[in-house]
Design goal:
Helix content: 40-55%
Strand content: 15-25%
CATH topology of the largest domain: Rossmann fold
Largest sheet: 5 strands, parallel
Structural class: alpha/beta
Number of domains: 2
Shape: elongated
Amino acid sequence: MVYICRDIRLYVSINTNHSEQKKLIMRVIIIDDEKKAIRSIELIIGEYCPDLEIVGRAKTALDGIKEIQAKKPDLVFLDIEMPHGSGFDLLESLPERNFDVIFVTAFNNYAIKAFKCSAVDYILKPININELVEAVKRVIAKRKANPHGSVNYDLLFSNLKSGLLNKLTVPSSDGLIYINIDDIVRVEAERSYCYIFTTDGDRLMVSKSLLDVETQINNPKFFRSAPVFR
């Protein structure tokens, strides 16, 4: 009986170590011109995000580009307004963006709507612990579901530069779908989700409420009609 117990303990110990070795650790770079913001992110990651390892820091867009090219991160916490170029300038200057981004911003409401429509993660300043942790969880979940997937940041740039948000990003069973808002004919609510009808005759089921989609579209061409009872 004693030897059996020892063997069991050894088996459990070996499996536990093996599991720990296979644990996903994401390499992180923090890019922000505010020392206080960098320190806040460091403290929250150290306390609440064991899956993250900070490998670099930068206070300008130019230094951020150098850090990204040298350290090859999996995730970047990126401030928007910085000296010598914005966070958007940084991303546009990189030919390859093989990493996820969580924007850290005190930016205006229009930019936040662009983030939502482009399926981009962001947290607001002053930095909230729960918001940062939840944003990290979303990034990790997306990576596990689609390890080779990437966010379409060109869509974000397009939405930010246009007078109106011109594309809507919606989740589906096959990943993210990008829909031209000009191609949307109508949106119908169905309990906690809704259907989007397009000019091509497609009907797309979306796991968002009608209010969520209405908020993201935010286009004067659309209006909310009276409920239709069938």
